[in-house]
């Protein structure tokens, strides 16, 4: 009963609150894109299908979301010149976490141009070598190299570069991370309701307004933070 109540609470958020939260054009575009991503998470073919149909509302939403995300990446690149090893690692590894560092006597490894003299207070840890197609988000084989990549890498950085790197990484893998959020949500609903068909599971996820609004708010906050960012 408690589980059913929790699911019910999540899917029956006040419709007025939900509508109010979608009055912002960018938020509405992100909502449209996220709703499509929930369906895409089921087969990894939905985005290609809807693009081929030239769905104007979807294409407009995708264009706006991609532009804001791309502009955010451009701004961050202009603020900090990451060293090549860190930038390559952020592109290759899909997961990033930041921890405290005790190596205060060392210098920041994130950018030799801006802050090599700043003290170390954070450690950037990058892991999960998930190679994927940036359009379809389907898994791809990693290019073969002479050496096997490490399962994880670390960089000792100052707090400012840690913050910038985290924002950059989240924007760079934005669509992939969103896909994973949707896949996780479908898995949770499928576990709670094994009797649901795949289509009904997708429908249930689309009605989880509390979860949806949190996803939207997370990305809106990231873009707003970057827009107001002053390194």
From TrEMBL:
Listed GO CC annotations: nucleus
Protein name according to UniProt: Uncharacterized protein
Species this chain originates from: Ancylostoma caninum
């Amino acid at each position: 009963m408690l589980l059913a109540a929790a699911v019910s609470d999540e899917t029956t958020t006040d419709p007025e609150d939900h509508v109010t939260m979608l009055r912002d054009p960018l938020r509405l575009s992100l909502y449209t894109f996220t709703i499509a991503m929930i369906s895409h998470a089921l087969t990894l073919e939905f985005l290609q299908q809807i693009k081929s149909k030239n769905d104007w509302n979807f294409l407009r939403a995708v264009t706006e979301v991609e532009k804001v995300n791309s502009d955010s990446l451009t701004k961050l690149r202009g603020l900090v010149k990451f060293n090549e090893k860190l930038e390559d690692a952020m592109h290759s590894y899909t997961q990033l976490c930041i921890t405290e560092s005790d190596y205060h006597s060392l210098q920041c490894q994130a950018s030799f141009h801006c802050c090599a003299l700043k003290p170390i207070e954070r450690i950037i840890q990058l892991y999960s070598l998930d190679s994927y197609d940036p359009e379809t988000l389907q898994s791809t084989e990693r290019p073969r190299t002479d050496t096997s990549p490490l399962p994880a890498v670390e960089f000792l950085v100052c707090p400012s570069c840690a913050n910038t790197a985290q924002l950059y990484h989240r924007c760079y893998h934005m669509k992939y991370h969103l896909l994973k959020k949707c896949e996780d949500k479908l898995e949770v609903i499928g576990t709670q309701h094994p009797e649901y068909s795949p289509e009904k599971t997708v429908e249930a996820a689309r009605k989880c307004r509390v979860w949806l609004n949190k996803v939207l708010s997370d990305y809106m906050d990231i873009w707003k933070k970057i827009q107001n960012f002053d390194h």
